[in-house]
């Protein structure tokens, strides 16, 4: 939810890193990025927190 | 110690009254002062708009004179702030007046940004202002059946409103005896029907029971006369479209470059504006990833009042805001449930009951006591 809101405010080319402990996000965020056509640059888990790095492409 | 509160809505009012009580002595001796600047002399109970939209409350029930809600020791002026100078510890208002302060709290709220979605304002019903809620009710009365779509933008205030309006519309159509001619369809921006997973898990069986179809990962990109097109490349047809557009903070926040989208970067525990020790934010205007709800503003206001009073009395804040939020959820058929949660603990909504609906109905009247700080 936060990512979608922040993506609206970001400029094309900006990279955003989402930190989430919500299990649904692990599947939903990559699926959303794929559908809308942004780019998933990196994803990893650290101390139980999911990190996803996303680039706004349009 | 000059305390300046910008905004006289839920957060600002509860904060001001709470502080006025804690600092009674200091206000009497002139050691402290509280000034509130707001954009209007009226205070609106915004949750009531949900009921106005389905003909269950009348708009005049939603307003009180702001001055009547405030402790007499609070100086109140209707003179909106146009310029914030956080480095210089002052603000300038629409009338051109300058207010110097020692501590500032920004609580200017948020607003639907329908203009962000082409065609939305023209074609969709909304209920987040008095005018829109009344207009929605008038349109509902003329509706004789068809496909009703509830579409939601992000971010938006009142996390439960999308579910509540869906259930309340069903009750409205049942009341008119036309539910058999109505198909309800709900869309939501993320991959489940609510941002809070336990609430989504509660809502899906309720939707299935009452025959609401739903679609997730649906962000409104454009609205035409008969369909909503999503960012994700899908579209959905409608005969009647009810929306909650994505929100922004107030324009003045963006104009003063205090935060992107009008939401100010805020410390999640101390509620200060990042980089400033004497400037705070509460309510919808924070950029915190928690619900933009009246109860959020309320619990933040209580924590902050305690900290500001303690800072004045003993030179240090005494507690952190723990992310507490409490939201009623109107579930239709005269029933309601609730969600209570904080940064650490997710909500666990219980099966809806008639008792909880009556509690919400009573709260709609008791809100004024809560704003005055009596609850
Ligand atoms: C339809 C609807 C249903 C809702 N239902 C619920 C619910 O059931 N439960 C719940 O908890 N919440 C609910 N909410 C959300 C709740 O109303 C808000 O989250 C809450 O009002 C936020 O409080 P706030 O103090 O941040 O802002 P607000 O209460 O919006 O107050 C903002 C204040 O700032 C003032 N202002 C604006 N610009 C300026 C300026 N430049 N200078 C000075 N003052 C300014 C305004 O005049 C106003 O007084 C609902 C909202 C809506 C619209």
Number of strands of chain B: 21
Strand order of the largest sheet of chain A: 1-3-2
Q: What is the number of independent domains of chain B? A: 2
What can be said about the biggest beta sheet of chain B?
5 strands, parallel
CATH homologous superfamily of the largest domain in chain B - what is it? FAD/NAD(P)-binding domain
**Can you give the helix content of chain B as a percent range?**
25-40%
Name of the CATH homologous superfamily of chain A = TusA-like domain
| CATH third-tier fold name of chain A | Translation Initiation Factor IF3
Structural class by SSE content of chain A: alpha+beta
Helicity range of chain A = 25-40%
CATH architecture term of the largest domain in chain B: 3-Layer(bba) Sandwich
Class by SSE composition of chain B: alpha/beta
As a whole number of angstroms, the C-alpha radius of gyration of chain B is 21 Å
How many E-type strands of chain A?
3
Bound molecules: flavin-adenine dinucleotide
**If strands are numbered along the chain, what order do they take across the biggest sheet of chain B?**
5-2-1-9-19
Shape designation of chain B: globular
Structure description:
- The complex is a heterodimer of chains A (58) and B (375).
- Helices cover 38% and strands 36% of the residues of chain A.
- Chain A has 58 residues and is of the alpha+beta class.
- Chain A has one domain (2-55): Translation Initiation Factor IF3.
- In chain A, strands 1-3-2 form a three-stranded antiparallel beta sheet, covered by helices on one side.
- The radius of gyration of chain A is 11 Å and the shape is globular.
- The model of chain A has no long low-confidence stretch (mean pLDDT 90).
- Chain B is an alpha/beta fold.
- Chain B folds into two domains: 2-109 and 250-314, FAD/NAD(P)-binding domain (3-Layer(bba) Sandwich), CATH 3.50.50; 113-246, FAD/NAD(P)-binding domain (3-Layer(bba) Sandwich), CATH 3.50.50.60.
- Helices cover 31% and strands 25% of the residues of chain B.
- Chain B is built from eleven helices and 21 strands.
- The mean pLDDT of chain B is 97.
- Classes of the chains: A alpha+beta (58), B alpha/beta (375).
- Chains A and B meet through helix 1 and helix 2 of A and loops of B.
- The site of flavin-adenine dinucleotide has 37 residues of chain B, from helix 1, strand 2, helix 3, helix 10 and strand 20.
- Flavin-adenine dinucleotide binds next to helix 1, strand 2, helix 3, helix 10 and strand 20 of chain B.
């Amino acid at each position: 939810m936060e990512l979608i809101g922040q993506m609206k405010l970001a400029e094309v080319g900006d990279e955003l890193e989402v930190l989430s402990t919500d299990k649904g996000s692990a599947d939903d965020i990559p699926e959303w990025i794929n559908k809308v056509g942004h780019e998933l640059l990196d994803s990893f888990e650290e101390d139980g927190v999911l990190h996803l790095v996303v680039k706004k492409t349009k | 110690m000059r305390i300046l509160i910008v905004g006289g809505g839920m957060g600002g009012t509860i904060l001001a009254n709470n502080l006025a009580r804690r600092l009674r002595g200091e206000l009497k001796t002139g050691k402290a002062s509280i000034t509130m600047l707001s954009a209007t002399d009226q205070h609106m109970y915004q949750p009531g708009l949900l009921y106005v939209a389905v003909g269950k409350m009348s708009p005049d029930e939603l307003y009180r004179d702001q001055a009547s809600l405030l402790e007499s020791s609070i100086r109140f002026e209707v003179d909106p702030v146009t310029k914030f100078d956080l480095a210089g510890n002052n603000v300038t208002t629409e009338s051109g007046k300058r207010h110097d302060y020692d501590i500032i709290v920004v609580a200017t709220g948020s607003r639907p940004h329908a203009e962000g979605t082409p065609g939305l304002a023209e074609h969709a019903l909304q209920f987040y202002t008095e005018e829109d809620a009344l207009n929605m009710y008038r349109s509902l009365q003329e509706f004789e059946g068809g496909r009703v779509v509830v579409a939601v933008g992000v971010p938006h205030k009142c996390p439960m409103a999308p579910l509540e309006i869906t259930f309340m519309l069903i009750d409205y159509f049942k009341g008119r005896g036309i539910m058999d001619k109505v198909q309800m369809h709900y869309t939501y921006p993320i991959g489940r029907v609510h941002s809070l997973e336990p609430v989504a898990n509660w809502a899906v069986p309720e939707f299935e029971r009452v025959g609401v179809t739903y679609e997730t990962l649906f962000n409104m990109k454009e609205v035409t006369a008969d369909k909503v097109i999503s960012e994700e490349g899908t579209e959905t047809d409608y005969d009647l479209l009810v929306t909650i557009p994505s929100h922004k903070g107030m324009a003045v926040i963006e104009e003063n470059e205090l935060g992107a989208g009008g939401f100010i970067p805020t410390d999640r525990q101390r509620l200060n504006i990042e980089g400033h020790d004497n400037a705070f934010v509460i309510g919808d205007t924070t950029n915190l990833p928690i619900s933009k709800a009246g109860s959020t503003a309320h619990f933040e206001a209580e924590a902050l009042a305690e900290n500001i009073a303690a800072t004045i009395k003993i030179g240090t804040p005494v507690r952190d805001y723990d992310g507490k939020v409490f939201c009623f959820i109107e579930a239709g058929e005269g029933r309601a449930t609730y969600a209570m949660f904080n940064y650490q603990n997710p909500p666990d909504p219980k099966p809806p009951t008639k008792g909880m609906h009556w509690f919400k109905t009573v709260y709609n009247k008791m809100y004024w006591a809560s704003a005055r700080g009596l609850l």
